[in-house]
Amino acid sequence: MRILVVGAYGMLGREAMAAARVAGHDVEGRDVDTLDIVDPQAALEVVADTEPDAVINCAAFTNVDAAEDQEDVALAVNGDGAGNLAAAAAAHGARIVHVSTDYVFPGDATRPYVESDATGPRSAYGRTKLAGELAVARANPDHVIARTAWLFGVHGRNFVDTMLELGASRDSVAVVDDQVGCPTWAGHLAPALVTLAQRPATGLFHTAGAGSCTWFDLTRAAFDATDTACSVEPTTTANFPRPAPRPAFSVLVSERGADAVVLPPWEEGLAGYLAARAAIQSKHTGGPS
Ligand SMILES: NC(=O)c1ccc[n+]([C@@H]2O[C@H](COP(=O)([O-])OP(=O)(O)OC[C@H]3O[C@@H](n4cnc5c(N)ncnc54)[C@H](OP(=O)(O)O)[C@@H]3O)[C@@H](O)[C@H]2O)c1
Questions:
Q1: Could you say which architecture CATH assigns to the domain 2-158+183-210+250-264?
Q2: Residues near 132 by Cβ (< 8 Å), separated by ≥ 6?
Q3: Which residues form ligand 1's pocket by a CB distance below 6 Å?
Q4: Which residue among 5, 120, 239, 284 sits deepest, i.e. has the most Cβ atoms within 10 Å of its Cβ?
């Protein structure tokens, strides 16, 4: 297959490029410098030029807190932009695989969210991502919308990275223990997106790391795995006010049965990420980290 990855310089986009190549596909990548998805004509032209069988959209306005003050800017990318790319793919008979988020849900559930559960975003970012889901589904019947959560990978700043840096310089960190979600390694999600690009099934898919934990649990696990001698103290969301509200409970599971692409448990994702991170650090320092 020929696959066009958009948002190709981002944390997930880089992994998607690599995963598509590993799967033996012919891959082309674009980011905002060569394709601004806000421009519908540019999207049409790039898809016409590259002639993909599938487009994987990893491009997004991803600053959740900044979106509270810049919802119009975020909506242009996450809503209209996603729709533009889906329409361009449709015009050329290509499938669109679009990445969305647990933030489309209100986050007050007491059981995991499945694909058919009612949405109800509580943040500007979540509203713009939901607008993108609707725009993609409207513009291209041959669509996959893959919702994921708590993403980390070697090609971008992420929570695990931040905690490991703090853990190396402090004796103790306080971490929120009242938000539950699904940590997801980009190295697991990217091949899942490629699989979804290859398979005929369409619609919504929940694609997050299996299992669930709190940010506190994730930090504890990362410190244990790296022998980081920093204590982790549980704290509450109320003690860490942020501009955008965070979902308290946004565990994602799939009800898609045989069509589902089930990711490995988040603990395996963390282990994979830490190994990839250590390999990069060792390459930079010329020895084992
Ligand atoms: N990170 C998470 O925890 C998380 C959780 C759930 C879902 N997601 C979703 O996963 C996807 C990938 O996220 P990520 O963490 O890999 O994000 P990321 O690292 O911020 O990558 C997004 C990429 O899109 C580019 N971009 C922004 N505006 C664009 C535009 N108008 N046209 C084309 N490209 C544009 C960005 O360029 P600039 O850097 O120059 O802006 C960046 O290279 C997104 O759909 C996001 O909503 C992420």
A1: 3-Layer(aba) Sandwich (3.40)
A2: 60, 78, 79, 81, 82, 83, 98, 100
A3: 6-7, 9-13, 31-32, 35-38, 58-62, 77, 81, 99, 101, 129, 148-151, 156
A4: 5
